[in-house]
């Protein structure tokens, strides 16, 4: 059993109950190789139902990544909150690799959100300026998708300032209001850590070493409010109580743990509702240790995260096309 407060991992056999879900850490490219094709349907077997379409905020249908991109399409810039010098490696690099493999015509770039104006070539202003220089003057040059799965006002403010300072014709695509996919990804991460079983029985999962879940976010109260919807959906999947808490505001992880304990929960699991680079790993581990919780890994380059980033890019492209035709 892993020490409290540290990310724990389970053998790949633990994930057998999740056929086909994507993670981009080590085997994403292998899973994107041609398969054996569909298997014949056995007599009496249930008919697979079509997947429900994702709905964007306000009832609009989100547009996925186009099958073919026009020449000179805007670059997709994965913008990493500036919490450390290694923010462009790890999950961000993995996400960029998968996006490039899945969309060879797409210009995928990574950039650090430069809060301090250090003139770093990997900073967002330098990356935006380079993307603009490679496209016709005045044409949309980039869609910037911050590496966040919940609102983070300080990061969005810094992005807007950086775009204005660069002079680039760039838009921000945000990965918000996508709670069902995030709940599924969090379930997978908990299963990876041995904190929730992958087996599905009557449409819910049987838990193992946790009987209550805390979703940890960054970004203040607004992020907690958004993550609370994800927590509700995760609770439905696991048939367990789940609450959202903040690593940088209130309600804190300690506050959420107290509420869970008041409900009779004795084994708490901390599930970081984060891609990863937007929070300090030490802060996550300390929060878990403070309440005696075991901790799953952040979402990282989970297949659902890659899908949400693609949807954010496609949605901005759709808006640009609408503006161009009006």
Concise synopsis of the structure shown:
It is built from nine helices and ten strands.
Low-confidence stretches: 8-42, 45-62, 201-205
CATH topology of the largest domain: Rossmann fold
SSE string, helices as H and strands as E: HEHEHEHEHEEEHEHEHEH
The biggest beta sheet is recorded as:
4 strands, parallel
Structural class: alpha/beta
Total number of strands: 10
Radius of gyration: 20 Å
Q: Regarding quaternary structure, how should these chains be classified?
A: single chain
Please bin the fraction of helical residues. Answer: 25-40%
- The helix count comes to 9
Per DSSP, what share of the residues sits in E-state strands of 2 or more residues?
5-15%
Side by side, the strands of the main sheet go: 2-1-3-4
Bulk shape: elongated
Overall pLDDT confidence: 80
Secondary-structure blueprint of this entry?
Layout: H1 28-31, E1 75-80, H2 91-102, E2 108-112, H3 124-133, E3 142-146, H4 153-166, E4 170-172, H5 179-192, E5 200-201, E6 204-205, E7 212-217, H6 221-238, E8 242-246, H7 253-262, E9 268-272, H8 281-290, E10 294-295, H9 303-325
Parallel strand pairs: 1-2, 1-3, 3-4, 7-8, 7-9, 9-10
Antiparallel strand pairs: 5-6
Structure description:
The protein is 35% helix and 13% strand. The chain has 2 domains: 65-176 and 304-325, 3-Layer(aba) Sandwich (Rossmann fold), CATH 3.40.50; 179-299, Rossmann fold, CATH 3.40.50. The termini are far apart. It has 326 residues and is α/β, with parallel strands linked by helices. It has helices at residues 28-31, 91-102, 124-133, 153-166, 179-192, 221-238, 253-262, 281-290, 303-325; strands spanning 75-80, 108-112, 142-146, 170-172, 200-201, 204-205, 212-217, 242-246, 268-272, 294-295. It has 9 helices and 10 strands. Helix 3 packs across helix 4 (153-166), helix 5 (179-192) crosses helix 6 and helix 5 (179-192) runs antiparallel to helix 9 (303-325). A hairpin with a 2-residue loop joins strand 5 (200-201) and strand 6. The strands form 3 sheets. The protein has a 4-stranded parallel beta sheet, with helices on both faces. The longest helix is centred in the C-terminal third of the chain and has 23 residues, at 303-325.
